[in-house]
Automatic annotation (TrEMBL):
The keyword Methyltransferase is assigned to this record: no
Superkingdom classification of source: Bacteria
Protein name stated in the entry: ABC-type sugar transport system permease subunit
Gene3D superfamilies given in the database record: MetI-like
Record's bilayer topology term: Multi-pass membrane protein
Recorded family membership: Belongs to the binding-protein-dependent transport system permease family.
Stored PROSITE patterns: ABC_TM1
Pfam family, one: BPD_transp_1
Residue spans crossing the bilayer: 33-58, 94-116, 128-149, 182-203, 224-252, 284-306
Domain ABC transmembrane type-1: 90-307
Primary subcellular site in the record, as a coarse category: membrane
Organism: Actinopolymorpha pittospori
Localization terms from the record: Cell membrane
Length: 315
């Protein structure tokens, strides 16, 4: 009897030591995991979280970067929303956002659908060709466009002169009616391949059985597209439209280079990005610029929600 008791006690002691060693191994594994991922969180805190919090606080101050910041409450936000230049920048940004999103997403979807349905050979080559503009820097593309639409030596005016027989010296980049469409074309040309690649991947992920079942039920080509393809592509369309929205509200390089940093004639190319840059690094009103960055964040969130409601996709 006593031997059995001693045996049981030994087993319990052994199991206890095994459990303790297992717990220690798990704690050691967790420490290793946290040690491996800690650099990311440290860098995110230093270069992401802390600047975000600092920008939020600076937005309530009057600060030029040299003198001590002076707390002004909501004065910066009131000054922004009541400034006519802000209203014009919002209009130009929304104009470019709508035009570039409709053109880029629409053209990319059509091209992706045609490639997926009708192109058998050379798909990889076509993807590479459409992705090439994305490799160029936005400033480089803007310089190319400024050369194309130059008044005296531009290829566009040279082509029109050859067609009409008269010397055409139209100032495209100084035109209040043409500067925004030119920027829209630049954005669409640069990001067309990126959005097309998204749509091609989405179309290829749709099971072929769904198309076969729809055709067996008597659905025609348009009905198959409307009832199978388009609904299943809505999440990708939403992502594409959202990324286009964020890019449009962060637009800077194209209008800045095309207008030499002036915003164009009658500020026709002044967008929120160039207004933010000018407020911070020309006027040195960092408090106002920080407040403007948060206003831009709010506008991006609002238009993202609008996209989700229009496409009936839950955010």
């Amino acid at each position: 009897m006593s031997g059995t008791t001693l045996l049981d006690q030994g087993r319990r002691a052994g199991s206890g030591s095994a459990g303790a060693s297992g717990l220690g191994a798990r704690i050691s594994a967790h420490r290793t995991f946290y040690l491996m991922v800690s650099p990311f969180f440290v860098l995110f805190a230093l270069f992401g979280l802390i600047p975000i919090v600092a920008a939020f606080w600076i937005g309530f101050t009057d600060w030029d970067g040299l003198n001590p910041a002076r707390f002004v409450g909501l004065d910066n936000y009131v000054a922004i929303v009541t400034d006519p230049a802000f209203g014009k920048a919002v209009f130009n940004t929304v104009y470019i956002w709508l035009g570039s999103t409709l053109l880029t997403v629409g053209a990319a979807f059509v091209l992706a659908y045609l490639i997926n349905e009708y192109v058998v050979f050379g798909r990889s080559f076509l993807r590479m060709v459409f992705l090439l503009p994305l490799l160029a820097a936005p400033a480089v593309i803007a310089i190319i466009m400024s050369v194309l639409f130059s008044t005296n030596a531009g290829l566009v005016n040279a082509f029109l002169s050859a067609v009409t027989g008269d010397r055409v010296t139209y100032e495209w980049l100084a035109s209040t009616g043409w500067i925004k469409p030119i920027i829209i074309v630049m954005i669409a040309w640069r990001f067309l391949g990126f959005h097309m690649l998204l749509f091609v991947a989405g179309l290829q992920s749709i099971p072929r059985e769904l198309y076969d079942a729809a055709r067996v039920d008597g659905a025609g080509g348009w009905q198959v597209f409307a009832r199978v393809t388009f609904p299943l592509m809505l999440p990708i369309i939403f992502f594409s439209a959202t990324s286009s929205t964020v890019g449009a509200f962060q637009l800077f390089d194209e209008p800045y280079v095309l207008t030499n940093g002036t915003g164009g004639t009658d500020q026709a190319a002044e967008v929120l990005g160039t207004m933010l840059y000018r407020t911070a690094f020309t006027d040195f009103r960092f408090g106002m610029a920080s407040a403007l960055s948060w206003v831009m964040f709010a506008l991006i969130a609002i238009f993202t929600i609008v996209n989700s409601r229009l496409l009936r996709v839950r955010v």
